[in-house]
Amino acid sequence: MSEQATADKEKLLAELLASINQHSFAPDVAHVEIHGNQVLNKNLVEGLLVESETIEDGVKVHIRVRKGVTLKNPVNFCFGLIPDNGIQRIIIDTVIEEGAHAKFIANCTFPNAVNIQHLMNAVITVEKGASLSYFERHVHGPKGGVTIVPLTKVIAREDSRFSTEFELIKGAAGVIELDYEAEVEKNATVDMKTRIFGRSSDRIHIKEAAHLSGEGATGVLTSHIALKNTASANIENEIVADAPYARGHVDCKEIVQDEATARAIPIVQVNNHLAHVTHEAAIGSVDSKQLETLLSRGLNEDQATDLIIQGLLGSDPFS
Amino acid sequence: MNLLEIQNLSLFKEGRPILNNLSMDIWDGHVHAIIGPNGAGKSTLANTIMGLSGYRDFEGDILFEGESIKALSVDERARKGITLLFQEPARFEGLGVSQFILAGAKEKSRTVVEEALQKAGLSPEKYVKRAVDKTLSGGERKRIELASIYAMKPRLVLMDEPDSGVDIDSIKYIFAVIKEMRHMGSTVILITHSPEVLKHADHAFLICAGTLVDKGEMSRMFDYFNGKCVPCVHVGQPSPNTLLSGSSAPAVAVS
């Protein structure tokens, strides 16, 4: 690689990390940075395998956490595009081998987006007795020119645990077509959460499904969405319980302001009389009791609404 | 000196009088109690003083520090120093205990949060990172709300049944906060059915069917809880002989 190419790569890496307020990592923290279809940087730790292959408009990534390994620190992934237009397609195959435990943090950053497509196609297998926590944070620019299409298929084997959290709070969401599907085997647990703040003319479509196929499997699907201006959201969360002692819960809360619109369709299906699935859905303006409590502390209506939304969308990953 | 003056206050809901020509003087720096049977209008009065939605359209006037607050919104009243401890505290999905306590506090610091939690008998280590949501019991949320009011250091706090939902071992912390608030110069109005809570007031108003029927020192008001009083049957229209008629007047309808 020429000196110029190396310098360009380093500049791109610095810009990418700066956009997520991350400037360096400790040596024992695994991290991978991918810009467009180029892996800019990679640091791995023992027990973690990450292989990549460049394709025309993106990268194929194979991730494995070796059997019995517990990764001490979360693995940090950064995906993104610095230019204002383009396509980034990420095809990921992740396997957390038997008895292994890992936490991943993925930052997806498009700070200058005007016309960008971020297409992710992931298959995640969490083998017997293993666990994976996957936190995905999106950082978008103010213009909203991003189309996000994450398609994820999760297989949670016996006694495994998988949790995922998708956060898009800063910047304009743009268009989101999120589709997560999980197969949950015996005594496995899947917890999928989305937290999104839609503004302007953002269009959000969330589809999460968990199939509780094994005895004692549990699944929780949570969507917390706040919408303002003319943003719209369509949430479809589905849990199907086929096995005895399977337990599931669907929680959908949406705060709608201005001219924004929201639609929630929780689907719960129980095919075994020993299984139990519940759901709760609430769509509307800010709860009047919450609002009046904060008004009676002296906050004005805008401040109180912001605080309530901040709570609804708040998160402390891996706390 | 009066901090709050309620002048000929009447409030109607669906044509029915809920508060009926009420007049009260709330002395500055004292702990007052408003007592009366269920449906007497106690909570309505508290909500009207706070200016909550649905309690804004009334006859008469409410003066705070000599000025009418009738036209002020809830938050404007709060910024003047009036606040309300709700009977049923709200749940806030995801909102941290610290954020909630500091929402109305003039000084925003960790010390303020810790001190307020300690006053309410809650361990900062255990609660500071939690959310004011359904993972807390009603009693815990009540005490966290009390902590938030303590942190606000209001001029006037209306406490609507401060002991409701609080377990017997924790009630002492509610009383400690009431005492502490009086000590720091706040005026407290307790809305209560409880003789135990009443003990912490200097002075009480007895209302029935939205009408003030008696007022006076606590020792005399204890009679209300000692069998002299039965729930008033004259909803919205207390009979003339139940109305306030001097210090020896019996409370409400006498059995």
TrEMBL record, chain A:
InterPro entries: Fe-S_cluster_assembly_SufBD, SUF_FeS_clus_asmbl_SufBD_core, SUF_FeS_clus_asmbl_SufBD_sf. It comes from the Bacteria. GO terms for biological process: iron-sulfur cluster assembly. Pfam families: SUFBD_core. Residues 95-311 form the SUF system FeS cluster assembly SufBD core domain. This is SufBD protein. It comes from uncultured spirochete.
UniProtKB/TrEMBL annotation, chain B:
Residues 4-234 form the ABC transporter domain. GO terms for molecular function: ATP binding; ATP hydrolysis activity. Pfam families: ABC_tran. One of its GO terms (cellular component) is plasma membrane. The keyword Transcription regulation does not apply. Coiled coil: none annotated. PANTHER family: CONSERVED COMPONENT OF ABC TRANSPORTER FOR NATURAL AMINO ACIDS-RELATED, LIPOPOLYSACCHARIDE EXPORT SYSTEM ATP-BINDING PROTEIN LPTB. This is ABC transporter domain-containing protein. It comes from uncultured spirochete.
